[in-house]
């Protein structure tokens, strides 16, 4: 079958694509920026990438007509826009209109469990999309999941931060809200097993794990899996705003995402039973099992996707990376250094491992201080780290940078700063003729930008010098 996957660079999409390819399907992936295509797929004849933005109808002409099945995986839980509900409606309407012009037989939509009368804005928005997608020209299958537990998922990483950082928690009352978490492997099983399955046509199913747990129980069971003793007390006086700040300062999440999560976590997420487990032969795993499997992936450095790599995790970039690849030449300050490279392979491996737990090879404490200052003033700080400790791809988050260009064969890495700055900054590493060229570029915005550059200039002198020295060091 020819299968269209929207949201192909998202948390679910990245994990679903390999399963569809293993099943022998021809997969067409929609991306808003072709610079974010995973290089591992470039030589695969069973996968195509097309540049599409469902907010812009004129870009939808790229979608082929001979589609058999389509996955609608466009969500805006992390969207920085306050108008996300309208944006989701526009995307859904444009998607439906275009798909009705194709030969598609089935559309599969992953939504959220929405059985309560009072829903959060995000759950209500997903329900609105459910109401918009049905069509007389194709069959619609809807799966509605609650908290998804897996390596790199937002809920998993937030729980991990809380459990591993805080031995004692005074937490908001929403920790007593009940939910039915489901493992990411089970979500993916439901999705790819439903392809072309006529028994699920024009049906909606809640998918969930076998346990009903409160968020407090999830934290404590997570701690048990990790062999940690944790104590949690809930208080009724913590406002949603204070709760959001609590999550923001303790975990890896941004404040905007934290505030939306707090709103959603106040709503019970309990699924309605159905025959879907039997129909698709899926027996959802327990919460503890999902946590254990997630850590196996982490230990193997095999995390396929992470919410931290979402462009919305910082809100600094738009979706078109080519806007940032060409570093400006005029009106900029630069710190340029070069050194001969005695061992190119070693230096390249060091560059590809930079940041995260590895650090920045020199003055890492100062980098951490800069990250702390950034987070204090509302930025992202160093909270995101990196998804994989030794591999980098275009679009990856890297501490308070974003990978704009990464090509090991061409020996070049380009990062764009996502910390709060009175201007824009790039950091480039490239090896030419056995010479490592390291360039930090800053384009100031107004007088504040110029004052900022001169204030940090003394630190640049020894930080960047020490960094390049250690990058080319033969041992």
Give structural notes.
With 475 residues, the protein is an alpha/beta fold. It has two domains: 2-306, Rossmann fold (3-Layer(aba) Sandwich), CATH 3.40.50; 314-472, START domain (Alpha-D-Glucose-1,6-Bisphosphate, Chain A, domain 4). 35% of the residues lie in helices and 21% in strands. It contains 14 helices and 19 strands. The protein has helices at residues 11-22, 84-99, 121-132, 154-165, 184-193, 215-225, 240-250, 255-265, 276-279, 287-299, 322-325, 344-352, 364-376, 446-472; strands at 2-5, 26-31, 47-51, 69-72, 106-112, 139-145, 148-149, 168-172, 178-179, 182-183, 203-207, 213-214, 231-235, 333-340, 397-398, 401-407, 412-417, 423-432, 435-444. The strands form five sheets. A seven-stranded parallel sheet has the order 3-2-1-4-5-6-11, with helices on both faces. A hairpin with a 2-residue loop joins strand 15 (397-398) and strand 16 (401-407). Helix 2 (84-99) packs parallel to helix 3.
Strand fraction band?
A: 15-25%
The chain-level structural class is: alpha/beta
Strand order of the largest sheet: 3-2-1-4-5-6-11
The radius of gyration is: 23 Å
Globular, elongated, flat, extended or rod-shaped: what is the shape? Answer: globular
Distance N terminus to C terminus? Answer: 51 Å
Here the CATH topology of the largest domain equals Rossmann fold
